[in-house]
Design brief:
Elements (H helix, E strand, L loop, with lengths): L5 H17 L3 H13 L3 H20 L22
């Protein structure tokens, strides 16, 4: 039987949540930039420009990509032999 301190799990989940809220995966960034390059409608283009600017600032300054509020609900599967 393996024992894991609850604080260890809390620390890892905290780190992953922060990372997920500050840094988009590169493929997602490229997809957004590709959409922007193909967008003809001026208003939509400006919105996509703001999204690109937002994730670039988040990467550079280590701040959340979106200032939306909410609560994360985490489901953790650790198996039967972990306590």
């Amino acid at each position: 039987m393996r024992e894991i301190q609850a604080s260890t799990i809390t620390d890892v989940v905290e780190r992953l949540c922060i990372e997920a809220n500050q840094h988009l995966p590169e493929d997602v960034k490229e997809a957004i930039k590709t959409c922007r390059a193909r967008e003809d409608w001026d208003i939509a283009g400006k919105v996509l420009d703001q999204i690109v600017e937002n994730f670039e600032i988040a990467d550079r300054e280590n701040v959340p990509i979106c200032q939306d509020t909410g609560m994360a609900c985490v489901f953790l599967e650790i198996g039967q032999d972990v306590h």
